[in-house]
Amino acid sequence: MSIEVRYEYKRKNNYREKMTPRRHVLAGLKRTIIAFILLAIIILAITSQDSTSNSIHSSQEKYTSQSIEEKLYELNSVAETEERLAERRKYLTEKCAEAELDRPGNDSIHKPNAWEFFVNRDYHLIWCNVFKAASTSWIYNFNRLAGYSTQFLKSSKAVPVSLARQRYPRPTAEELANYLNDSVSFLIVRHPFERLLSAYRDKLEQSLPNTFHSKLGVRIVNQYRIKDRKNRIKHSPRYPTFEEFVRWLLCEWRAGNELDMHWTPVLQFCTPCQVRFDIIAKFETLQEDQNYLIRHVHLEHIIKPEWKNPTRGPQTRDVMKNYFQQLTKGQIADLYDMFKYDFELFDYSPNEYLEIGKQQPAPIECIYLSVDMIPRGYIYLDMKIRHLQPHSFGKKKRILLFFGFTILILIIYFSLSRFYSVMKKKLNKSNSLVVTEERFVERRKYLNKKCAEAGLDYSWNDPVNKPNAWEFFVNPEYNLVWCNVFKAASTSWIYNFNILAGYSKEFLRLNKEVLITLAREKYPRPSVEELANYLNDSVSFIIVRHPFERLLSAYRDKLEKNFSNFYSSVRLQIVKHKIKTTPLNNYPSFEEFIRWLLYEWQAGNKLDEHWTPVLQFCTPCQVRFDIIAKFETLQEDQNYLIRHVHLEHIIKPEWKNPTRGPQQKDVIKNYFQQLTKGQIADLYNMFKYDFELFDYSPIEYLGFGKQKTAPIKCNNRKISSI
Question: Where does the chain cross the membrane (predicted)?
Fold first, then answer.
């Protein structure tokens, strides 16, 4: 190894000795350049490291100072927001007290309305949904809190509010009161006029064809658009103008009609004077308000403050002037009256908008008369009056003014004539109410007398003959008790009790469930003891009908024309077991039905509620009825009842399920001519007490019967109860 090293060293030395002076110089230069390059690289590396270190250090200092500034700003912002929200709560409380809106009562603004509230029990959050005030965004947020993923909500075709209602059922007023004890409650409000305009632009001006709001727009145009000389409507634009919409809306409001949720005042919607709200957010400061809310309830990790449904085109605030210039100052003042409490309770002002309006008078569309007896409280005039501008008449000015005054005098004359006729009707109705009241007194006296004569006025404590509370509906809120007699305006009054229970007309119209099923969800069947207690402070009523007419109506509706599974089985049972010659795919004749019914009654079998006597159904000799209405005088009777319990503003006297085809009186003879006098006499025995207690007579019907002997009433084999 040492020999090899020495040899290598010797070889290199020999090489150096052989190098020329020039080569020595070049080699030295080469080494110098390499050393210089290495030195430069080292210096650059050190400099770069120092600058990077300084840069990182300075950026860290900058970030630290910036985050501190942001934190201080954030804390100040939160404190300001918290102070602002406290001021709003205090202001609302004071204004509610001044207007006496914080007192409990039975009308729509003095009792809590829980219909539009969303309650999330997991996060203890309660929100009253005010449409057109960030409602789409917060429905989205509540859907996220309910567990729906962002991907699902993005791809779903379902309406977001429908999805939300699947997870957030509408609470009752009592449930809402309980939830408020341990939850944060909030609502978002907006300047009433901006909210109204936003609703108009979104639902009418930009409505899609064949939707509910587009059809509403067509109706408004047909009713309120000024026609040309040939009585033709101008169809441009296709949607109602803002002025036409406002005229329609004011007429609906004055008439006391139910308004669409997009332009219903917040006072009626959320009843803020009856419900405690911890946070009152405003559309004008929404970003700060909802940032505070989300942090306050610790939901930053789930939802973000964003708007999901901005108005298409220019923003509402930017175009307000263009729309409100279409209105007169009088119309804007009327709109202020409509939304008066929304302005006052949430500290908004209408002054800016009143200045925009035109000075000329508004066109006459509907006249509101404060006469109680006029249905709905108003009269529509089927006319349009153009605004007269005298300065543009020229030579025809005097002629036009003359005709204008003539038309005005005619309008006043016809208005006074109408007013006179209305007052006359009012007096007639007052007389009619007195007559109706006397009739009810007579009916009660007659019923009590007949019950005593027949020995049917058993005591409530009688162990055998107890009152039957099964078919009673009790509404404690309106102190109303009703015994439902099927086929005696029962569908109409089940509908009315559903309205009183809080179901909306739109919901009942679209709902696929049977009305009585919906009603029983809100009105559980009372016990006899509960019924006795309710009767002490309630108005109780029953609607009765001529027993034979009620029976025929039930037969025609349930067997002759009804193809539901239940009554089809009844129909086939009668045909199969009673009449061997009748095809099984046919319905039984009236005579076959009567034979079957008489057999069931004589056998003591339980009867269907549609042909059970009223005596067994409502036990009228034991239950005190304040009002005994009759089908034959139903219009007058239920008008009196509705006024007597002060429900004119909620329900209307109308029939929801009239008998299809000709009226009962026109066809009753054809049906009863199928029976023998003996069968009709047996039917009378079956409904004997219904005839006697409610003053009905079977004589007319006995005259229809045939003289021949009735067929055998029943076979030896017993038909089981269906």
Answer: 399-420
